[in-house]
Specification:
2 domains; Nucleotidyltransferase, domain 5; 9 helices; alpha/beta; globular
Length: 311
């Protein structure tokens, strides 16, 4: 049996999965990313977990499992270099050459990209974008990420950092963003941005107990401030999505992430805004769809799917 490894490297935890050719995760392991300050011991322990999974699966199959490669979704992951470039939320600092370090243990293909790109390609290989050549993925969470597929290929651009639609400026002189600029989409439609909008509408202070999930629950109970919050967010995200259509003419735009799980309180105003702002020549050509991958599997499947770009 042939398997690929998908690695989701987050700032706190690293999830590792052994994935079959048809997208089933058959083994999973976990590492505490924030327990490491150097790349070498982190990769050593990651490879130890991978070898443990391979051995366990070989026992299940009754034949030696073959490893086709290792795909990694990571913050600031660069597809061209195989490096993570100075990711601010990692305790392992600097330019991290994963490809070089992993090859000390296994001579297999290593593909690395940022987590939103991985999610997009996972949708293409294993999810609702199967058979599509042109689509965009928006991921809503702590930030706002995106991945763009054109002609069946993930767009990386000249630097490997293309597709940062969460940092497209929505409003001049808007909210301060973690990137250092003002008015980025992320500051309005991320989980934190949604909380800020709710508190501005309600006239209250932002506190840790106010979350986008809570605001979603309030909306389903008919709370008018919560409903107005999602209406505002839907309008903002719909504008950003309509703008994105003008440069790549996708067949669909997929949406995933915690805040997107609120459903109709977001999706109804989002679709209305999308149609309102969409350039008329694209009318009826692009649908807005939810990701078809399971929330607890998308990161691993996306990372594993990156290996398909090498084939």
């Amino acid at each position: 049996m042939k398997y690929s490894i998908g690695v989701d490297m987050g700032g706190t935890n690293t999830d590792i999965g052994l994935v079959t050719e048809n997208g089933n995760i058959v083994q999973r392991r976990n590492l505490p990313t924030n327990a490491y300050t150097e790349l070498e011991p982190y990769v050593r322990d990651m490879m130890r977990e991978i070898e443990t999974m391979m051995a366990a699966q070989s026992a299940v199959d009754g034949i030696a499992a073959q490893l086709e490669g290792i795909g990694i979704g990571a913050p600031n992951g660069n597809f061209y270099t195989g490096c993570v470039d100075n990711a601010p939320n990692l305790t392992i600092k600097g330019v991290l050459n994963f490809e070089k370090e992993i090859h000390k243990y296994r001579d297999v293909p290593v593909v690395l990209s940022n987590d939103a790109n991985a999610a997009a390609y996972g949708e293409y290989v294993y999810g609702g974008a199967k058979g599509m050549k042109h689509f965009i993925m928006f991921t809503l969470g702590t930030g706002v990420g995106s991945g763009i597929v054109v002609d069946g290929k993930l767009v990386h651009g000249s630097t490997g950092a293309a597709g940062e639609l969460g940092h497209a400026i929505l409003y001049q002189h808007g909210r301060k963003c973690s990137c250092g600029r003002e008015g980025c989409l992320e500051t309005y439609t991320s989980a934190r941005g949604i909380v800020q909008t709710y508190c501005e509408l309600k006239g209250c202070e932002v506190t840790p107990d106010i979350t986008s999930k809570m605001i979603g629950e309030l909306a389903h109970q008919g709370d008018p401030v919560a409903l107005k919050t999602w209406e505002t967010v839907g309008d903002q995200l719909g504008l950003a999505m309509a703008n994105s259509v003008t440069f790549s003419a996708p067949e669909a735009i997929f949406l995933m992430g915690g805040p997107a799980q609120v459903g109709e309180p977001l999706l109804k105003p989002l679709r209305a805004a999308f149609e309102k702002y969409l350039l008329n020549i694209f009318s009826g050509t692009c649908s807005i769809r939810m990701s078809e991958l399971k929330a607890n599997e998308v990161a691993i499947l996306g990372a594993a799917a990156l290996l398909k770009m090498k084939n």
